[in-house]
Design brief:
Layout lengths: L1 E6 L5 H14 L3 E4 L8 H11 L4 E8 L5 H15 L3 E6 L4 H7 L6 H21 L8 E6 L2 H10 L2 E4 L2 E3 L8 E3 L2 H15 L7 E5 L2 E4 L3 H10 L7 H6 L3 E4 L1 H15 L1 E7 L3 H18 L2
Helix pairs in contact: 1-2, 2-3, 3-5, 5-6, 6-7, 10-11
Length: 294
């Protein structure tokens, strides 16, 4: 399995560099930066992370394709890839926050048009990266989202399909989400494999875990959460969702093993606030692999 986390804040350069090095020591494979106007600039952050580490891969999870033209994006990705020695994972998405489009001075379009724009961008970026000369391996290409339109692009054009684990709540403002259930995840994974065809066996499936809750009584916590902030789900649905980890370190490690077996989720990403507790889960899984000879 591969493990990664998404950075949400910069801090001082020295502090950030040490956080990157400690993540590498803890067993994380990739450091990601998202593409939000109120967050750090992705490529500058990733260049700093690459310079501070030796093997940690760096990438975007995900860029808003509406903010970039393919040619400008390829220039950024190729530069970062050269600086990092070929450690880049380039993730793209359709964008979902209307206010960010407005703040950036970019017209807001419906979901179908944003998905078409993403497909066109991924197609062109893939072609440009494949045509580029040089001895450095080309960046891995990821596409992230949860809608069928976006996942179709991911299945047909990407190396990694990143499942965000969130669905837009019907009749609610754009950007109002609910967590995906295990059954919905299984349906999306089947759809990806159908769309990928012969490519299915080579695709990596990535889950962006939305919450990591260390606790001794996971059912009690699930019942409390579904009675409060997560009322769209039952406790059983929350406990079985691959986008929420609840329990002891051993229980969370077992959840990840089950999610890999059931859904093929071989790459797991968490948000930075969950990084340290998730590092303990990584350690438990790595120890188990050593103990079983895997």
């Amino acid at each position: 399995m591969r493990f990664s986390y998404s950075v949400s804040a910069l801090g001082s350069s020295a502090t950030f560099a040490e956080r990157c090095r400690s993540a590498e020591r803890a067993g994380f494979d990739v450091l990601f930066v998202a593409d939000h106007l109120d967050g750090p600039a992705p490529f500058a952050m990733l260049a700093a992370a690459a310079c501070a580490t030796d093997e940690l891969r760096v990438g975007t999870l995900v860029l808003n394709s509406a903010f970039w033209t393919p040619r400008l994006l390829v220039r950024e990705a190729r530069t970062l890839n050269e600086l990092s020695g070929g450690r880049v994972e380039l993730g793209l998405g359709a964008g979902y926050l209307k206010r960010e489009f407005q703040e950036a001075g970019i017209p807001w379009e419906g979901a179908a048009r944003r998905a078409r724009r993403l497909d066109e961008t991924v197609r062109d970026v893939r072609h440009m990266l494949a045509a580029a000369d040089g001895g450095t391996a080309a960046p891995r290409l990821a596409v992230g989202g949860m809608s069928e339109q976006v996942l179709r692009t991911a299945a047909r054009r990407a190396d990694t399909v990143s499942l965000s684990g969130l669905f837009q709540v019907r009749k609610a403002p754009a950007g109002t989400f609910r967590l995906a259930t295990a059954e919905e995840t299984a349906a999306r994974v089947r759809y990806v494999r159908e769309q990928a065809g012969e490519r299915a066996a080579s695709l990596e499936l990535n889950a962006l875990v939305q919450m990591v809750v260390p606790c001794d009584d996971r059912r009690a916590v699930a019942e409390r959460l579904t009675a409060g902030p997560i009322q769209e789900m039952t406790a059983d649905e929350l406990l079985s969702s691959p986008f929420a980890l609840l329990g002891t370190v051993a229980e969370m490690a077992e959840q990840l093993r089950r999610h890999r077996a059931e859904f093929g989720l071989g790459h797991v990403t968490v948000y930075e606030p969950f990084r340290d507790v998730f590092a303990r889960v990584i350690a438990a899984l790595r120890d188990d692999e050593k103990g079983t000879g895997g």
